[in-house]
Amino acid sequence: MEEVGGAPAGPYEDLEVIREDAAMPTSRFCALIGIPRRTYARWQATDRAGRPVGNGPWPAPVVDVVEPVAAKHAADWPAWGHPKIDTLMAVDGHVASVSSVQRAYAAGSCSSPSTTRGNAGSSRRPAGPRSPRRRPRPNSPVEALAALVR
């Protein structure tokens, strides 16, 4: 399968080879594999016109500009995620949306935030004896009667 724009072209080329080898009409093949006939016909028309089939990675000029700045801030503040990095960038005069900074993180040049949170454990209940659990309230009159009978 050829790559289009750095990403795999999609399943169309492989499916078309299978369909042609089986000498199967498009409508029957689409019903067999569960793809809408109109979608497959659009793929065929795109292929016959000589254009690449499928969506490639779209250009992201904003992310390309934001990525080095976000990577610098992410290296300075590794525990912070993309919303705070976006705020730091805004303070420094770099205007970008939070989603653009998130895409820069996803691209891999920024260090991803750690999975543990700073003081997340401090709000937990201290270990010790538990208080007795209350019984759940019945949801229906039948359950209420059954609870009374027990």
List the helices and strands and how they pair.
Layout (H helix, E strand, L loop, with lengths): L2 E2 L2 E2 L3 H10 L4 H8 L3 H12 L12 H16 L5 H10 L6 H10 L33 H9 L1
Any overview of this molecule?
This protein starts with a strand and ends with a helix. The protein contains 7 helices and 2 strands; from the N terminus they run E-E-H-H-H-H-H-H-H. The chain has 150 residues and is mainly α. Helix 4 (61-76) packs across helix 5 (82-91) and helix 4 (61-76) crosses helix 6.
Proportion in β-strands: under 5%
Main sheet summary: 2 strands, antiparallel
Helical proportion?
40-55%
- Please state how the strands of the largest beta sheet are arranged side by side: 1-2
- Low-pLDDT stretches are 1-7
Overall form: flat
Continuous helix count: 7
Count of β-strands: 2
Helix/strand-derived class?
mainly alpha
Q: What number is the mean pLDDT?
A: 77
Query: What are the secondary-structure elements, in order, as H or E?
Result: EEHHHHHHH
Distance N to C terminus = 67 Å
What's the gyration radius in Å? 28 Å
